[in-house]
Amino acid sequence: MAEDRFDRIYNRVMVKMIKSKINARLDSGLQKKYGLKSFPIVAGDVVSIRKGSRKGEGGKVLEVNHSTGKILIDGITSVKADGKRKEFYVNPSLIEITRMDLSLRGRLDKLKEGAARRHIEVTEEPEPVEGNTEVQEIPSEEVKEPETIEESEAEEKEKEEEAKESDDKQD
């Protein structure tokens, strides 16, 4: 009997966690425009990373994982020891929304409601994000990441060939 009650409570908490929205901070321009500091993030929003080693990088949100509370961003990957690229999920506290995808039904209404609570009137209709919108990255001289996996593999082969040639010359 006690186990059944525990299972019901546990399931209720898990469903609430999965259905909960993950909020992210809005950039300063959007904060002034709508009077909101944060807003639920969805796939299709354009974000930039504001803290950490990847500060300044950004892209379009591909996936919001509600069970782990992390966000997958287009173009943000990590390199494994064998040289392969792996998806890199980012904590929402480290990012800010720079452009919102308002094509989802009801999202614009929620935005207008939040602005109205702060006595800000949204007169213009924001444009929905279309296509592949990119956020400019801060140039980094230290790390040069190739844009595709094929380019990184080609660079690795060139380095291996140069290393073999230098070994042959030393012998």
Structure, explained:
The protein has helices spanning 2-19, 28-34, 107-117, 149-170; strands at 23-26, 38-40, 46-49, 58-65, 70-79, 85-90, 95-99. By secondary structure, it is an alpha+beta fold. It has a single domain, classed as SH3 type barrels (Roll), CATH 2.30.30. The longest helix has 22 residues, at 149-170. The termini are far apart. Mean pLDDT is 77; it is low at 132-144.
State Rg.
Answer: 22 Å
List segments where confidence is low: pLDDT < 50 over at least 5 consecutive residues: 132-144
Summing up helix and strand content along with how strands pair, one would put the structural category as alpha+beta
Distance between the termini: 78 Å
How many separate structural domains? 1
Compute the average pLDDT: 77
Question: Which percent bin holds the helix content?
Answer: 25-40%
Main CATH class: Mainly Beta
Envelope shape: flat
CATH architecture: Roll
Quantity of strands, as a count: 7
β-strand percent reads 15-25%
- How many helices? The count is 4
CATH topology: SH3 type barrels
Order of helices and strands: HEHEEEEEEHH
- How do the strands line up in the largest sheet? 2-1-7-3-4-5-6
Main sheet record: 7 strands, mixed
